[in-house]
Structure formats: C-alpha cells, structure tokens
Amino acid sequence: MQIINENTSHGGRQLVITHDSETCNCEMKFSVFLPPQAKAKPCPVLYYLSGLTCSHANVTEKGEFRAAAAEHGIIIVCPDTSPRGDNVADEDVYFFGLGAGFYVDASEAPFSEHYNMYSYVTKELPKLIAEEFNADMSCQSITGHSMGGHGAMICALKNPDTYTSVSAFAPICAPSQAEWGQNAFSKYLGSDKSSWRAFDTVALIEDGNKVPEILVDQGTADEFLETGIRVPLLEKACSENGVDLTLRMHDGYDHSYYFISSFMADHIAWHAKRLG
Amino acid sequence: MQIINENTSHGGRQLVITHDSETCNCEMKFSVFLPPQAKAKPCPVLYYLSGLTCSHANVTEKGEFRAAAAEHGIIIVCPDTSPRGDNVADEDVYFFGLGAGFYVDASEAPFSEHYNMYSYVTKELPKLIAEEFNADMSCQSITGHSMGGHGAMICALKNPDTYTSVSAFAPICAPSQAEWGQNAFSKYLGSDKSSWRAFDTVALIEDGNKVPEILVDQGTADEFLETGIRVPLLEKACSENGVDLTLRMHDGYDHSYYFISSFMADHIAWHAKRLG
Questions:
Q1: What are the structural domains, with CATH classification, of chain B?
Q2: pTM to 2 decimal places
C-alpha cells in the first residue's frame, strides 16, 4: 500500500492510495478520509461507490462529505469503479469496461481476469482498511451513486451481516432491466440471465435477500430516471418483500455531483445514527 | 448574458454564465449560486476571487460553499481569473497571463487591451449581478484564495464603502515583494514600481487605505507561505496602520481546495454576520 496523495482537510486526513490488488489482478487506487477522531479511537467505516465514468477522484473532490464525516467521526472509503491498466480488457464506450465495472465478479473471458469489483469491494478492500487504519470493522455501512448505488445495494443485500446500513443516490435499481446494465451484464456474466440475478438489486430482493431498510435520494430532473435508474421497480420489490424503503424525490435535482453533494451530509448523519 | 449551465443544488440554483465584457474586451465566464432565499427577497452578495491557474470552475466544484450560502441566504459570485480567448495576450507560464490576471487594470501594451480584471470585478460584474439577479447591492462582501485573496483585499481597501467585509484564504499579501507578483506587475503595470502600490495590499495599507477588519486563514504546510504569500508583511502593515487582522494559522493545511473547503463555511458565516 502506498499513499500517493495526502491533504489535511476538515481536521482529518484525506488520502489517495494505490495497492496491488490480488482480486482485480492489477494496481488499484482508492481514497480514504480519516476523521480527526481516528487519531484516538477506532472509527466506523462508510464506503462510497461511484458511478459510471468516475474514479475515486470525483467524489473525493466534489462530494462534500468531509465536514459531516469529521462531525460524526466516520472513515469514508471511496474505491475506483473498475480495474485499470493497459492489460485490462475494455471497450470504447462509457457504460462498459474501464470506469464501469458494475461491482460484479465477471465470469466471462476476457473480463473475468480483472473485473472482480464485487469481491474487491466486499473482501479485499475492507481487509486492507482493517490492517492499515484505525477502523472499527464491526461498524461498516455502504452508499453510492448511480452504478455505485446499485453496487451499494447488492453488496448490502448479499452481506446483510457485514453492513450496518445502506443508502443510495439515484441508484441503478434493476440493471438487468436497464439500458446501462444489459450490455454490461451480458458481457461480464454471459447470456444466461439467471446468473444476472445475483448482481441485480430488484432480483435479489425478489429472491429473498433482505436488509431492514434502504434510504434513496432521487432527483426529479435526473435525465436517466426512466431508462437507467427505474426507481418504481425498486419501490415495488421493497414493498412486496418487506424491505423498508425511504425514497425521497427531490424537485429539480439532476444526476450530477451538485445533487449528490446536496444530500451527502444527510446520508452520513443517517448512517452515523445506525453505526452508533 | 447567457446561462450555459444550471444545476439545482442545496435548495438553490448553481449557474454558469457567459457574457461579452466591455471591460475585458472579450467573452467572460463566471458562476453564481442563488440561494433558495433569492426566490423571495434580495440577498446579499459574496464575491469569491480564485487563485492562479483557476477559472470559475475550481471553487464552484470543490469549494463546498453552497450549504453555508443556502443556510445564510447569500449569493456567491465566482468570476474567472483573467480575460480569455485566442486574441488575449499570454505567456506560457502559470503565474502570468491567462489564469493569472492578478486583479489589476493593466497599463502596458499588449496586456492593457484585455487585462482589466480590477474594473471588471469591482464595476462591470456587480452591475450585471444587480441587473440580472435578486441581489441586495447595498450588502456586498468579498473573499478569495491566493492571488484571489490579494484581489479581494485590494478591491476592499480601494472601495471600503462598497464592500461590507473582506476575508481571504492564504492570500498573496504583498505581490510587489513576492516571486509571483513581481513578474506579473512589471508586465501589467510597467517598470515604475510606484504604480504597483495601487494594487498591492501591504502598500495600500501603508499608504493609508483602510478597512476596519480582515479575516485571513492560512495553513502552516502551505508550500508558498514564504515566497508567494508572506503573511508577516500583512501582519506588520495591519498592526502599524490600525487594521484589525484576524490571522488564523492552521496546523498541517496546505494551499489546496482541501484547505479552502475546510474553512469556507466559517468565512461565509463571518461575512453573513456582517452583512446582516
């Protein structure tokens, strides 16, 4: 593990880190914010998973999470959205390949060699955080935006004992049924759509996976609401399967970081309450 | 005036605007955040002047000012740092020319044709804000970072009746005596150093220009503290000339937006108190 950037901010330390990932079989980069409280005691961890085309950097610069993280004493971990490097298979589109790992473990060649973001986020990255930082690993929560909202929800639904709470900003709710997801899932997971269900929030809930509650914020002016995000499918699945969904629709907000940053402090406070 | 970007954020509207500037003789771009209160009543205005290499965009994305601006009901206006365009004279260095207008009115050819950022910021831009937005122009304050901190202080010192209050983040305090400033001032203002004093904070204070108080935040790990910023010169000038300087040194903070964003809410609250 190597710290490649360090800035004091909001009383804590904002780091950018590279490390050799066994899971993704390449060098991976992530950011971590250590609140001032982490100097004195182990702190809870909140993972933020980013959306299509992003790296760790977008939310680290534009997410406005540090003031609230410092207030509540929460470590914020922001991984990349895919493996990276010259040897990593890619296609020249924004919604697949580099910057678009969809938080799955790919089963199909050539993608299976590197695209294992699900195991990276749920296993390798937490192990590294536990080893290197003053983190209370019994208190982990997860959130994300768009493709990262999808990622956060599947990680929590598949590991309800690992994550204390889960929230999302404008999440892709049912990638198997969304423009963005179908292309990616067919290439990462193959043509047998039954294998897609293990990485699809709505399908996971339909298949009996459970978390007690999910907080979702969504802008009404989001240009991807109908085709990529599809919150009504999430509402239906949650309502039919006993998952308490708090869906807050926000008038005039779009899909950008101007939206995310507006509600980031709310999400951190919401997780903080549950992380104790 | 043309709105080229608009995002709902923190209950308000974040706009990016272009207009033909008479003062700079080119198209100029700036951002303006209208807090939710501006829908109902005229709001005070806080100008934020950016530092070397920046445009309006850096602080608009990374400054973390919207939450506090929405809380206090203040319009935030962020101009560019220089004229722009293919016809604008430039040199291929980061500390002069494009992105480095130093908030002076240049007297020397070829720069005098476009580099009139002082008049742009103090006259043309406020006139446009007054015409186009629900702004209370009797309540204007100004702040800035680095070269923009220099800009904020000279604008306030030269127009003490226009600006209710002035603050700065890691400001260039005495450009006439600093690496960054000497090159720029000699080219914009000519070799006669007496003309530099009209655009130099320390010299303006020495020459009897006054504001009641200045708030300055400064990181101790700022790599430009000794050569570019030189706060001791500001401390001395203020102390000898009856300007109440609140200088807050912050352990471990550098010159980046991670520093600025950490104290942005403080500055907005400080101005809000004075703007009433």
A1: 2-275 (3.40.50.1820)
A2: 0.97
